[in-house]
Write the structure tokens for this entry.
Amino acid sequence: MTADDRIRCRQRREQRRSSGFGALCAVFVGVVGASAAHAEWLGDSLDLMGTRVSVDLWADDEARGRALVAAVLDEYRRIDAAMSTYKNTSELSLVNREASDRPISISAELFELVEDALELSMLSAGAFDITYESVGYLYDFRARNRPSRTEIDTRLGTIDYRLVVLEEASRSIRFARPGVRVNLGGIAKGHAVERGAALLRNSGIRHAMLTAGGDTRVLGDRRGRPWLVGIRHPRLDDEIVTRLPLIDEAISTSGDYERFFEEDGRRYHHIIDPATGEPTEGILSVTIIGPDATMTDGLSTTVFVLGAEDGLALIESLAEYEAIVVDASGRLSYSSGLEPGDD
Ligand code: ADP
Ligand code: MG
């Protein structure tokens, strides 16, 4: 199976799945437009998943539009409650506590998201690896805590996506070694906006923008013109690297400025190289554009770890995905479908 085949499988499954309800940091330009008598732009946002999540949509009927905005926010809350490692009561926390001892039956949604994560691990030879958390949990970026090299070395053997064993028949997950932990922070926000988008699409909404931190999914256009999503400059707060017109697409950015502290001139940030157990070096931000927000989210983290050269090579192998990489010297690299002047 080629990389593209895998991704297509995932998209087909996503379409089947859309039964109910689917950084850096994008800066959104002009989300709310003029309102007409009955049809209008409606939206809301809240702090969740360690970031800001939001939805804006065009509704023909105000009451129904408001109900759909509330339903999307509920969907975000539901996903956070199931998949957060910060909540002891989440399904994922239960898995982290017990899956080294016995197989744990999990929801179809969590099972499929872990499957997606493992696919990305295979595509990237382990650059994307949700078991990074086996060491990652020792970092606390707010408290400026990081593990010592010795602490990392004693646990490094538990970072390996092949230690996550899924069994389809019983829809269960187990870890093949003690000490393994997983964290879906590199893919769950994309999943949340993709689920929110599916909910809206199934309810007849044709124009919407859904955001969770650096992950954005747009439905349709902004009524006659594309949505414009700006990519934030990784070092200059109010500056935009470029602005992209998007219709019916997803865009995700990963940046080393999202969560970090500095010590002895080194920036310790939240994207961990599974090979070393330490934050990656050499990339400031990665933006991925493509049809599916779960994939753009996972791929932005993946390319961040792989670096510009290997990361862009991976993106070139995926027909529907494009990337913009900003390296440590501030240089921008684009995948071939996005080369400036290509428009
Ligand atoms: P953000 O969460 O800021 O939008 P990303 O999408 O890049 O940025 O996700 C970063 C998150 O991904 C980290 O906070 C962590 O939870 C998770 N993560 C870090 N390193 C890896 C890795 N090598 N593979 C998979 N997930 C990772
Ligand atoms: Mg990501």
